[in-house]
Amino acid sequence: ALTHVTLKHYGAQRVEIKTFVTNPKSYKIAERLNFEQEAQLENYFIDFLTQEILDGFLYACCDWKRLPQLK
């Protein structure tokens, strides 16, 4: 709902979601909302618990009409 309002009513041009590649629960939300995967980000995140450097995914949506219908 927030993405829909942001794009349609506030006129935002783009909404992005960045996730760890190791976190399928997060990136599957972006896919379920019809965001488009635009990039794989190498060495983009630092896991502050393990100090590990991780890759990420960049998803974006630029058109509110691509989003699932609100109920």
Q: What are the salient characteristics of this protein?
A:
23% helix; 71 residues; alpha+beta; three-stranded antiparallel β-sheet
Please write out the topology.
Blueprint: H1 2-8, E1 15-20, H2 24-32, E2 36-47, E3 52-61
Question: What is the helix tally?
Answer: 2
Query: Residue ranges: pLDDT <50 for 5 or more in a row?
Result: none
Helix content: 10-25%
Secondary-structure class? alpha+beta
Radius of gyration: 14 Å
Q: Quick one: how many beta strands? A: 3
Strand order of the largest sheet: 1-3-2
Beta-strand portion reads 35-45%
Distance between the termini: 9 Å
N-to-C order of helices and strands: HEHEE
Mean pLDDT over the residues: 93
User: How would you describe the shape?
Assistant: elongated
Task: Give the biggest beta sheet.
Answer: 3 strands, antiparallel
